[in-house]
Amino acid sequence: MFIALVVAAVGSLGTPLITSVATTFHVSLDSAQWTLTIALLSGAVATPVLGRLGAGPHRRATILATLAVVVAGSALTVLPLPFAWLLVGRAAQGVGLGLTALMMGVARDHLPEGRSGPTIALISVVSIIGAGVGYPLTALLAEFGGVRAAYGLGLLVTAAALLTAWRSVPEAPGGRSARMDVTGAFLLASGLFLVLFLAGETGLWSRHLALASVLTVAAVLLLCAWTVVELRSATPLVDVRAVRHPAVAGANIAMFVGGMGMYLLLTLITRYAQTPPSAGYGFGLSTFVAGLVLVPFSVLGFVAGKLTPRLRERIDAPFLLAGSAVVVGGGFVLFAGARSNLAELFVAMGVLGFGVGSFSAAMPGVILAVTPRSETSSAMSFNYVVRSVGYSLGSAIGGLVLAGGTDPGRPFPHDGTYTTAALVGIAAMALTTLTALALARPRSAETDPTSAPAVAPSPGRPGRPGR
């Protein structure tokens, strides 16, 4: 859990430091934004590759090597080097985002049955709330010590994570193999890069529509080619046939749509809080104080992560997913109807955190129900790729909606535009709720997979464990 928390917090370091980076390195805000975007890109690309490596006999070596790359990248962000080297360091830090699914594999393989399920749920939660943990602290360090001091925190905690992994992470069980599908890895990495690039560079659609359209077609073709290669490969990077299982496919759709909605609300609240009152709304919070708005998100997200495994003993995971989506939708409703004072933003952020925490804790139970134990890392890696794409699109949708409500020459959108964006989020969470409820009917008689021994599903009875 510590490793998952560290890589999530370090991966999100770019968010509160964008303005400081632009000032320190004398670059534009758009260029400084890449300190966040490049980490998310490298994380999304590395996740399925690490998931496949983690499914084989060299999982411990993969974890240690990846953390070593993250530590080296953290050192580059601290050293007095040009801006290009900072981007290289941030890309290396982003590779660590792919370790979360490997931590789940370690928990499922080595913890007692009664502890593996709750631990996997908490690993999923801390990978979300890590941003809320690191945001205010790094913003405070940036205010008083500069951007190098803030990145120095990343170097310190990643070095501690590497030491922790070296001392405590065991070897994977024997009898496994994990040949790397190089062609599949290249096609997936290229397709994901284009998808996330297009989601992050929203201005490309307004300034160069033809180029954006060509890149979109290229991304679709690359992902289609990747699917064909995976279906024909004897050692696929991601078992696409397993992904087609109704429970896994439905869970990934719920993660994709729900992820868009969750990140959309996170974007709306933080942006609204930092808007100066001269715009007619907003609170003009500093970076550090705006980071404190994320504290309720992290605290209630962790509380939800602790409660959800207990509820899982009485309520099926798809129902928990649906209930969590309803909670996030409630956060949108609160934000849409009550944002006149800062306390209301804190409440909306807390509701969002509780919904995201319970959603993240319930998700592994749906996927791992039909996933062999040896494929835990690979299956959850694909889910995290879906989550990354959903988050990126959620952020892009928020930016597009707010840009559409901004008059020419005016730096800030109209207040009502935030309500419009909230309505978009409510629709996304309603769709997520319906998708989760659709999963409940065929799974109502299944047991909790994260605490029971995992076996491959029987070919003749989809969704049921084989014997």
TrEMBL record:
User: PROSITE patterns from the entry?
Assistant: MFS
Can you tell me where the transmembrane regions are? 31-51, 63-85, 91-107, 119-137, 149-166, 178-199, 205-229, 249-269, 281-305, 317-339, 345-370, 382-405, 417-440
Question: What's its membrane topology?
Answer: Multi-pass membrane protein
Where in or outside the cell?
Answer: Cell membrane
Residues covered by the Major facilitator superfamily (MFS) profile domain: 1-445
Q: Which Pfam families match?
A: MFS_1
Q: Which InterPro entries match?
A: MFS (IPR011701), MFS_dom (IPR020846), MFS_trans_sf (IPR036259)
Location, primary (coarse class): membrane
Q: Looking at the record, which segments are called Disordered?
A: 442-467
Keywords, A to Z? Answer: Antibiotic resistance, Membrane, Transmembrane, Transmembrane helix, Transport
For this entry, the protein name equals: MFS transporter
Organism name = Streptacidiphilus monticola
